[in-house]
UniProtKB/TrEMBL annotation:
<keyword id="KW-0970">Cilium biogenesis/degradation</keyword>
<dbReference type="GO" id="GO:0060271">
    <property type="term" value="P:cilium assembly"/>
</dbReference>
<keyword id="KW-0175">Coiled coil</keyword>
<feature type="region of interest" description="Disordered">
    <location>
        <begin position="121"/>
        <end position="162"/>
    </location>
</feature>
<feature type="domain" description="CCDC113/CCDC96 coiled-coil">
    <location>
        <begin position="260"/>
        <end position="433"/>
    </location>
</feature>
<keyword id="KW-0966">Cell projection</keyword>
<feature type="compositionally biased region" description="Polar residues">
    <location>
        <begin position="146"/>
        <end position="159"/>
    </location>
</feature>
<feature type="coiled-coil region">
    <location>
        <begin position="169"/>
        <end position="221"/>
    </location>
</feature>
<dbReference type="InterPro" id="IPR025254">
    <property type="entry name" value="CCDC113/CCDC96_CC"/>
</dbReference>
<comment type="similarity">
    <text>Belongs to the CFAP263 family.</text>
</comment>
<dbReference type="GO" id="GO:0036064">
    <property type="term" value="C:ciliary basal body"/>
</dbReference>
<protein>
    <recommendedName>
        <fullName>Cilia- and flagella-associated protein 263</fullName>
    </recommendedName>
</protein>
<dbReference type="GO" id="GO:0005930">
    <property type="term" value="C:axoneme"/>
</dbReference>
<dbReference type="InterPro" id="IPR051885">
    <property type="entry name" value="CC_CF"/>
</dbReference>
<dbReference type="Pfam" id="PF13870">
    <property type="entry name" value="CCDC113_CCDC96_CC"/>
</dbReference>
<feature type="compositionally biased region" description="Low complexity">
    <location>
        <begin position="131"/>
        <end position="144"/>
    </location>
</feature>
Length: 445
């Protein structure tokens, strides 16, 4: 088996990459987000010579990529992705803050305070690393001037950090607090709306009852009016030939009769109320009289009740004594039966236990025999596979960095396509559920 330094380097980078992915997946499960450090785009560009990489031929690109470390490039890409995600998160919270103008939205944000000295040290390290890379090239003199200008340009914003104020970054805990606050506000509004709606419904129901009573009264008055004016054909002929005074006299008669009936109804209601009040007063007086006479009337009654109670207690004691004797006999009998039953149950349980153990031993023996056969088959297969792997390892050659990068790009493209397809499937499922619900509603109606 041939092993080259390049293949060893690739294997180490691949193992480190798998460890990184497992660490990132665990961190995603715990919902803990760690904001990355500030990126120095100019240092990254000069480190990998991205400006001139596009001008290279394929052979020069292969030779250039052969000098790179795959793990270093992966860390840089992950750092860029983390920074983009952080910026999106900060943009979201700042948009919410600017729209609502609520300072409480910034509670729970973690401040990012980077001192000028730390920024300067980071820039010095980046520039020192870039200068070491440039010293190995022939165009180091051409790159010294833009590097210094970019270095000064990267240092210039640090002087204005104090003017801009403190920067904030959002963590998942703060986002959860915002969501809980929004849900509480919505729930409170829903409760208020329901309370107001119930109050309005009660008022509308009372109004409906009032209008219904008025409507019934109006319909009854209308019927009486029609009966008063249009009883038969003679009334129709009279109305056609009557004068205004005759109609006025007839209308006054109807209104006077209506008011008389209303006064009579009010009088009847008043009399009913008065009679109910008198009845209530009479019942109250009767209760007072009974309460006053209760001391005289209940003395003899209590003595009779006490005598009756003692007689019933004596009868109950005699019956209890008889029942106690019967319970003693039945208790001894039931105790003997219980002991015999318990002995039989113990024997039965022991028999079942022995039977189950024998069955388990038989099943275990058969299972072990099957497992032995399966293990022998697996051993034979593994030996064949091991021989094949040994033969492959002797002829194995590690892939180059360019092939690894191409495979990595293909994997990223496939992951994006998979995410898009999952989203489309989710949207189609939602549409299908909505259509099924509409269909169910239409079928119900």
């Amino acid at each position: 088996m041939s092993t080259t330094p390049h293949s060893l380097k690739t294997d180490v980078s691949m193992s480190h990459k798998s460890d990184l992915k497992s660490h990132l997946s665990k961190a995603a499960l715990h919902q803990e987000f760690v904001p990355p450090q500030d990126l120095d785009i100019s240092a990254i560009m000069y480190k990998y010579y991205l400006e001139e990489y596009r001008k290279y031929t394929p052979e020069e690109r292969d030779s250039r990529l052969a000098t790179f470390d795959a793990m270093d490039m992966l860390r840089t890409i992950e750092q860029i992705h983390n920074d983009v995600a952080t910026m999106k998160l900060e943009n979201y919270i700042m948009v919410e803050f600017l729209e609502k103008n609520d300072p409480k939205l910034l509670i729970g944000l973690r401040q990012r305070r980077t001192s000028i000295l730390k920024r300067f040290q980071n820039k010095q390290r980046a520039s020192f690393h870039g200068s070491q890379r440039m010293s190995s090239r022939q165009s180091s003199s051409k790159r010294s001037i833009p590097l210094s200008t970019s270095h000064l340009a990267s240092l210039s914003p640090t002087a204005t950090d104090r003017r801009r104020g403190t920067e904030y970054k959002l963590n998942f805990k703060a986002k959860a607090e915002m969501a809980e606050k929004r849900a509480a506000e919505v729930e409170k509004r829903v409760v208020d709306i329901e309370r107001n709606a119930m109050l309005e419904v009660k008022q509308l129901r009372a109004k409906i009852e009032e209008l219904r009573a008025r409507s019934e009264e109006t319909m009854e008055t209308e019927n009486n009016f029609m009966l008063h004016f249009l009883r038969d054909e003679n009334d129709v002929a009279f109305l056609e030939s009557a004068t205004e005074r005759q109609i006025e006299r007839k209308l006054r008669k109807f209104t006077s009769n209506w008011f008389k009936n209303a006064r009579a109804l009010l009088g009847t209601m008043k009399l009913t109320i008065v009679s109910l009040q008198e009845t209530c007063q009479q019942h109250r007086a009767d209760l007072i009289t009974k309460s006053d006479l209760s001391g005289i009337l209940t003395a003899v009654d209590f003595e009779k009740l006490i005598i009756k109670r003692t007689e019933l207690i004596n009868q109950l004691e005699e019956k209890n004594i008889h029942m106690a004797g019967l319970k003693g006999v039945t208790g001894k009998t039931s105790l003997a039966m219980t002991e015999e039953k318990q002995a039989m149950m113990n024997l039965e349980s022991e028999m079942r236990t022995v039977h189950n153990r024998t069955e388990e031993v038989a099943r275990a023996i058969s299972k072990l025999e099957k497992e032995v056969a399966i293990v022998e088959l697996h051993n034979d297969k593994d030996s064949v596979t091991l021989d094949e792997l040994r033969a492959q390892l002797q002829e194995y050659e590690a892939p180059s960095v360019s092939e690894y990068i191409e495979r990595k790009e293909e994997a990223l493209v496939l992951e994006k396509e998979e995410k898009m397809l999952q989203r489309k499937i989710y949207i189609l499922n939602m549409k299908l559920n909505n259509l099924m619900r509409r269909r169910m509603r239409v079928s119900d109606f």
